[in-house]
Amino acid sequence: MSSKFRNVLVAVAASMVAFTAGCTEAGSPVDARPAASGASASRSTTTQSTGDGSTMLASANNLDIIAKFRVKPQITIAWAKAWIGPAGGRIDFQGFTIIVPAGAVDKVTQFSIRLPVDPNGSERVVAEFGPHNVAFAQPVTIGFPFRGTSIESDPANAHVVWWNDAWVNMGGGVSADGSQIVVQVPHFSEYGTTTARGGGLTLSGG
Amino acid sequence: MNRPEATIEELLGLLPELDELEVLRLRLVAAAVRDPVKEWDSSSAYTTIDKRIVSPEAAERAIAEAEQALHEHVSVLHRGLRPFFESFFAGDRDAAARHLVALGEEMEGSGRAIMARRCYRAALTVSLPLPGKGSQVVALRRIGRVSLNVGDFHEAAAYYERSAELAHDSGDVHAAVVARTGLGNVLTWQGRWAEAEQCYHDALALADSADAGSLTLERGQIYNNLANLTSRLQRIEEAEGWFESAFRVWETLDSPVDLAICHHNHARLRETQERWDDARRSYEAALKLPVSSTIRAIVATDFAEWWLHEGYISQAEEWGRVAEEHAIASGSPYTLGHMYRGRGNLARTTGAVDGLTFYEKALEIARSKGYPLLEAETLLDYAALRAQNGGAEEAIAYLERASELFRDLGAVGEVARAQAALGELRPALLMPDVELAGESPLAAAAD
Predict the structure, then answer these.
(1) How high is the pLDDT of residue B36?
(2) Nearest in space to B184 (alpha carbons), one of B141, B225, B240, B140
(3) Residue B315: its chain A contacts at CB < 8 A?
(4) Would the CB atoms of A5 and B431 count as touching at under 8 Å?
(5) What is the DSSP code string of B236-302?
(6) What was the pLDDT predicted at B38?
(7) Is the CB of A126 inside 8 Å of chain B's CB atoms?
(8) Gap between the terminal Cα atoms of chain B
(9) What tens-digit pLDDT sequence spans chain A (206 residues)?
(10) If we measure between CA atoms, which residue out of B429, B354, B341, B439 comes closest to residue B388?
(11) How far is CA B374 from the centre of its chain?
(12) Bond preceding residue A116 cis, omega within 30 of 0
């Protein structure tokens, strides 16, 4: 199993929904399907400019700024994964989506969506996406639940943020059908780790 | 001033250091619960057993239960001594020694390992002047077994070795096979896998030299251990063969503990092969069998990780709780350490913040008792937590140490995994922005 949480990308609005970039090898398999077209992202504004084109959200090292689900989802399966190749594909999991366009990856790659399962985290519109360490040749679209969340009434300010020691605004906007906030990203994270499954020692006799 | 509760650490520190209070200590530990006020505490170590709290009512119940258990224990002890005295006064020193061994086994069965060892030592003393070495061989072996279970490896090895020599000199093939198997187990625990394998092969050769059809149980146990060892050494084809031999024995011979061990190790092999459904079936088969708390805790810990791998957090947590309960009951430091490692993984995967505490606890046990495999596996998992919290440098140090330990063990697969993780992390250190890592908001959600 592996995981990586340094950089967090979550979706936020009126704040926002947020996502964490990372990876995991674990999860329940989700069938890869051909990529759906059209999930484009519209930009939105937030509080403070960093001068490099991205925008920083002030003093937001907590989840209070992150949108909440109106009805907290019952999450018993924490994540989903799918192998997606150069032809593209998508994962849908609990209202979260990864849409990989054709040509984004040059070989079959495992994509994953992981959700927090603790009582405080799971009420927020937040997810971790994998794989780490992969720069996509074409931007990948990620989608977050919008309908049924605390920011539903303020679509103009809906955007996605990414955690990098502070919330970083990634832009994004509400999808054409109004169900999601979507944004395109070139990668999910910079690095990650892999760990082994160690097993206990049981011996017979003696 | 009235106190609604106290931490178990505080209570244990205040109790007089009397052997008679050992049961009470264990009952208090078992009665201790997580502090609900600190349920989402991100920094304290409240989640480990020694930091939990005990209410006055729970303490009162623990005292009553301990008193009752102590009464029963004293009865068993004295009842067990009667036949010893009878045999001794009848001049049958061998029978007297065997009665003491039986008493020790009863102590061992009720989880009183240290008392059991004292009984076995007394049996050894009684048996020393005897020309027949049978009871002495058994007493030596039992001391070896208890010492192994409490993590005293050097003592365990010395007693098993002496038992094997004496059995060999007395021409007792059965006892020699059992003692050599025990010695192989000690070597496995110590991480001396090549020597352990040789020891098992020696035991098997001895068993094969016995009459055909005899020592079936002992052969099955050696098959189990060789299957486990060759799996860990990544000699998969060989491992499959040993498993086949072992299962063939357990099909005809009723030994639930050995069958459970076989299923457990088989599950581990199937996981290595990524045959997850087969692994699940093996875990479930192991857990259905009537086994000791030690084995149940170890299997439950691994099964919890199986659920975690499949993404089913609530089931993983449920099995984690089963593991914890049995690990406490087992009194085995290894089992406790293994369970803590599993809890650390669960915490890491769910983004809970107490992973660090669990890993530290597992490392403390592994290092103080000398469990190299547990130490290496914990370091490997701990490295992932460090890396995900931005501590790439610490993670690399952990992975290097884990790699070293695995290499010493000959655990080829684990060395490769540690190296792969190192390969991913090292370039990250060269990227300045990567070092400026912050807390994950997912982790913060647990505060």
Answers:
(1) 65
(2) B225
(3) 76
(4) no
(5) HHHHHHHHHHHHHHHHHS--HHHHHHHHHHHHHHHHHTT-HHHHHHHHHHHHHS---HHHHHHHHHH
(6) 60
(7) yes
(8) 30
(9) 333 333 334 444 334 555 554 333 333 222 233 222 222 222 221 212 222 323 223 233 446 667 888 887 776 667 788 888 899 999 998 888 999 999 998 888 888 887 776 665 677 888 878 876 577 888 899 998 888 888 877 777 777 876 655 566 677 778 888 888 888 887 774 322 223 356 888 999 98
(10) B439
(11) 10
(12) no
CA distance B360 to A82: 34
User: From CA B226, how far away is CA B184, in angstroms rounded?
Assistant: 10
At residue B355's C-alpha, the angle toward residues B48 and B270, to 5°, is: 105
Nearest to B348 by CA among B444, B443, B447: B443
CB atoms within 10 A of CB A75: 17
Contact B134, B149 (CB under 8 A): no
CB-based contact, A203 to chain B, within 8 Å: yes
User: Closest Cα partner for A88 from A74, A71, A109, A72?
Assistant: A109
Hey, which bits of B300-339 come out as E strands? none
Contacts of A193 in chain B (CB under 8 A): 383-384, 387-388, 395, 421, 424-425
C-beta separation of A49 from A156 below 8 A: no
* Structural contact between residues B420 and B383, judged by C-beta atoms closer than 8 angstroms: no
Interface size A-B, in CB pairs within 8 Å, comes to 231
Q: Which pTM value belongs to this model?
A: 0.64
Sequence-ordered alpha helix ranges (H) in chain A: none
Q: Which residues of A touch B225 (CB under 8 A)?
A: 203-205
pLDDT tops 70 at residue B415? yes
Strands (E) across B50-183 are located at 53-54
pLDDT at B436 over 50: no
Three-class DSSP labels, B404-422: HHHHHHCCHHHHHHHHHHH
In b/e form, how buried is each residue of A112-128, taking b as 16+ CB within 10 angstroms?
bbbbbbbeebbbbbbbb
> For residue B362, what pLDDT band results from cuts at 50, 70 and 90?
very high
What ranges make up the beta strands (E) of A57-134? 79-84, 89-93, 96-100, 109-114, 126-130
How far apart CA B35 and CA A164 sit, in angstroms, is 33
If DSSP codes are grouped into helix, strand and coil, which group holds residue B136? helix
Beta-carbon separation of A190 and B434 below 8 A: yes
Looking only at Cα atoms, what is the longest distance across chain A? 71
> Is the CB of A163 less than 8 angstroms away from the CB of B440?
yes
Picking from A164, A183, A134, the residue whose alpha carbon sits closest to that of residue A11 is A183
C-alpha A175/C-alpha B17 separation (Å) is 68
User: Nearest CA to CA, how far is A87 from chain B (Å)?
Assistant: 26
Q: Which residue, among B197, B191, B274, B266, has the nearest Cα to B229 in the 3D structure? A: B197
Q: Do A201 and B308 touch (CB under 8 A)?
A: no
For A8, which of B298, B335, B442 is closest by C-beta distance?
B442
Q: Cβ distance A8 to A19 under 8 Å?
A: yes
DSSP string, B355-368: HHHHHHHHHHHHHH
List b or e across B370-400, with b for residues whose CB sees 16 or more CB atoms inside 10 angstroms.
Answer: bbbbbbbbbbbbbbbbbbbbbbbeebbebbe
